[in-house]
Design a protein that fits this description.
Blueprint (H helix, E strand, L loop, with lengths): L1 H25 L12 H13 L6 H20 L4 H14 L2 H8 L2 H27 L29 H20 L10 H18 L2 H18 L3 H22 L5 H18 L3 H18 L16 H6 L14 H9 L1 H29 L3 H4 L1 H9 L6 H22 L5
């Protein structure tokens, strides 16, 4: 039974990462349906979790309860479309708590295999993005999801994902795994080939300017700072991280001095200038306005929002289309995740969901630090930055972002279970 459950989990993770290939090139006419293919697996894993009482904890019970409340409020006072309501509520009732079921099923060997395959897949995924950035938008490699003519927006490639943000989020997971295995190479010598690690490092560095994504750069910087801080808490990692700090700037200088990166660096620099003109006077202002001030704008607009919200699922692309809109911008600005949550669920329930996400982030940081200080293990800490971003501000109405949150949370909880030999989380 356990081996069958593992197969289901592996299929689910495979679809999280690769389903957009079929949406863009294989079965584009079914692009709206393909993200739903993995949902029966999630439903079954939730059923197994309930049966084995794996979900009997504060985090699962509270977010599932909030999901049920949003569903009921939607049918009573919101848009009252039951299909859209189910699609929106499943984020809280199924897709987030399923990480706890997955963590109970996976073990130490699964963590190694999944990490290994994510790194191996990163090589063709990054190479494809590099090619896309050099090709015209109408190229077949730059085809968008479904009827979209292109996925290349302002020079930002999306690789196999539906949008550039998905590609950037995937790279943040790659960086977490890459740094963990680099710092633990002497312990994990037989896990991942050293050549693969080196190739991934070079491709990752090249990917930063070619992505033309400020988020990619910020995630990289925050992840590096976080892991350096974590590594210095463990004596045996200090020599490794010192070598990394010494070698990385040299590698950056060599790679970015190559001619083929010059045009990408120029585009990347222009991206910052354009963004600063729109969002702030300088890089710091733009960062603050985009990440912090932008989130709280949703709270400042509560007078225009019904007490019970417009209804869950309305701010997703799928839900919007089913309700007669075009995309997630049709009814309100759902690009701002806090705005989406509050507009869909109303101020009071929306704030509770946002608070749950902040508390969950604090919990993840706490167990990461606990593993560092007590078990001298860096794995959870390596995932702190991307998982925190996914939890607090990522667009969970997007299947790719939601899937990556489920993936990283599953890996973190699995490692925590293995380290502390816990039968329940």
């Amino acid at each position: 039974m356990h081996s069958k459950l593992k197969i289901i989990v592996y299929i689910y993770i495979f679809l999280i990462i690769f389903e957009n290939i079929f949406r863009k090139w294989g079965l584009s006419s079914f692009s709206s349906i393909i993200p739903l293919i993995k949902e029966p697996f999630a439903f079954y894993l939730i059923y197994i979790g309930i049966f084995h009482k794996w979900l009997n904890n504060f985090f699962c019970l509270s977010i599932m309860s909030l999901g049920v409340i949003t569903f009921i409020l939607t049918l009573l006072f919101g848009h009252q479309n039951i299909i859209v309501a189910m699609y929106g509520a499943k984020i809280w009732i199924i897709n987030i708590p399923v990480a706890f079921s997955i963590a109970h099923i996976l073990d130490k060997n699964d963590l190694r295999l999944i990490s290994k395959y994510i790194l191996y897949a990163a090589i063709p995924i990054i190479i494809l993005a590099l090619l896309q950035s050099q090709l015209p938008p109408e190229s077949i490699l730059n085809k968008g999801v479904g009827d979209s003519e292109t996925s290349l927006f302002e020079g930002r490639a999306s690789s196999i994902f539906s949008y550039a943000g998905g590609y950037v989020y995937y790279l943040s997971i790659v960086l977490s795994i890459l740094l963990y295995y680099l710092l633990n190479y002497n312990k994990q010598r037989n896990s991942i080939n050293r050549l693969i690690l080196y190739v991934c490092i070079i491709l990752y560095i090249i990917s930063i300017p070619f992505s033309v994504s400020r988020t990619h750069l910020y995630l990289t910087i925050f992840s590096l700072v976080s892991i350096i801080i974590g590594s210095y808490q463990i004596k045996e990692y200090r020599s490794q991280i010192n070598k990394f700090i010494l070698i990385t700037p040299i590698l950056l200088l060599i790679i970015y001095s190559l001619n083929f990166t010059s045009s990408a660096q120029e585009k990347f620099s222009n991206r910052f200038e354009v963004a600063n003109n729109i969002e702030g006077k300088n890089n710091f202002d733009a960062f603050y306005n985009r990440t912090i001030k932008y989130r709280f704008q949703a709270i400042g607009n509560i007078n225009a929002i019904p007490v019970a919200g417009y209804g869950t699922g309305m701010g997703t692309n799928v839900g919007s289309k089913l309700l007669g809109g075009k995309d997630m911008f049709s009814f309100f600005n759902a690009e701002n995740e806090w705005s989406r949550v509050i507009n869909e669920s109303g101020f009071y329930v929306g704030i509770l969901i946002i608070m749950w996400r902040i508390i969950s982030t604090i919990f993840i940081i706490r167990i990461g630090w606990k593993a560092l200080s007590q078990k001298k293990d860096l794995f959870i800490w390596c995932f702190i930055v991307p998982t925190s971003i996914f939890l607090i501000s990522s667009q969970l109405g997007n299947p790719t972002s939601l899937g990556f949150l489920t993936l990283t949370t599953s890996l973190i909880l699995t490692r925590y279970k293995v380290l502390y030999q816990r039968s329940n989380l």
